[in-house]
Specification:
Helix content is 31%, strand content 26%. By secondary structure, it is of the alpha+beta class. α5 crosses α6 and α9 packs across α16 (428-434).
Length: 470
Amino acid sequence: MPAEIKGLNEECGVFGVWGHPDAAQLTYYGLHSLQHRGQEGTGIVVSNENKLKGIKGEGLVSEIFTERVMSELTGTSAIGHVRYATAGGGGYENVQPLLFHSQSGSLALAHNGNLVNANSLKHQLETQGSIFQTSSDTEVLAHLIRKSGFPNMNDRVKNALSMLKGAYAFLIMTETELMVALDPHGLRPLSLGCIGSAYVVASETCAFDLVGAEYIRDIAPGELLIINDKGITSERFSVSSTKAICTMEYVYFSRPDSNIHGINVHTARKSLGKRLAFEAPIEADVVTGVPDSSISAAIGYAEATGIPYELGLIKNRYVGRTFIQPSQALREQGVKMKLSPVRGVVEGKRVIMVDDSIVRGTTSRRIVSMLKEAGATEVHVVISSPPIKNPCFYGIDTSSKGELIAADKSVEEIRVLIGADSLTFLSVDGMMKAFGQSEADGSNGYCLGCFTGNYPTEIYPDTLQYYYQR
């Protein structure tokens, strides 16, 4: 099981352009801004003169798309993808976009999310003669579209999407149009923008800022957008269910300069930190955050308490990715390589360490130890989210239930294991209030499955077996 410094592994990111002469170049920059969502593989498919051409590889965007490679990608429309492997695992064949050619035309797919009924659909399709070329759940959609009996592409896609369960933000490109779809719960973020007369779609709005696109709106749950040379039309493939955006998008995954459903991620994280200060007032000398996703929450905590915020931990940005290390000892050494305590800030001080989550607990234990080795007299750990007790089935690798430290241990037991002087998690109610939800609203609009075990969709038995026994 790969484990990177934070214990949580990112999802994937998608980016698409229609009607721009530099579509591939824009997609390259868009994927750069989404690189935090996946570092295992990346790909771009372009449409040029009614032909689809794709290039992909395992590695970072800058590693795969060199100047020579980019010179081969010309066209006015493109879709791209950055991947972190969840369902289906890694491997070149699973790097997206997936590109399919047939006598009736070509089809390219890019997907952020995870289908909870993928295995049952694969079994059904294989009994009907389908042969899968990848182990990715994304390929299921291509087979469903191809086997649909509807006469036009729009109806074939809508029929196929209606059979999927789980989280998905899909970009579907043919020679003549770009189709954009979001699952009926809107579990993944997906936004629409424009550059002049060209349309742009991205997992996060930070990509719009980099390429100079103007934000138009978020894609609605259960919506199918069709973009072609005639313009853009909106259809529905599903009656919108209760919206349930993943709360971890705000807590950890999205970049702080992105906006999700009108809420700036940095502002949301500051609110989480302020709410945490209300729930966990602690006497201390300094507040510090674990770089990078916890900085905003730490600033919010410091502002609410009046305790000075300081850079007590520094991230080394020139260290290779450590989540591929094969042993726990090497993983912990990777933490020390990536994070360094600032002795001049923490020595002789009572330190409040703000982090966004605890998954396995090994990283937290090492960071607490480093702070104490640097002279901190006390280390109080405060977490800007509730304990993660359940797996995520929708595209975030929160491991099997057996590897989640909060699944079978109390807060006090976790505190002892990580060596902190105190440990506090934000309550679920506090998280909702930080997001502007009243107590009466409950979790309306948000997925809290990894915290509460209450999932917005049905979870199929084979999926449960995979996550709970692996």
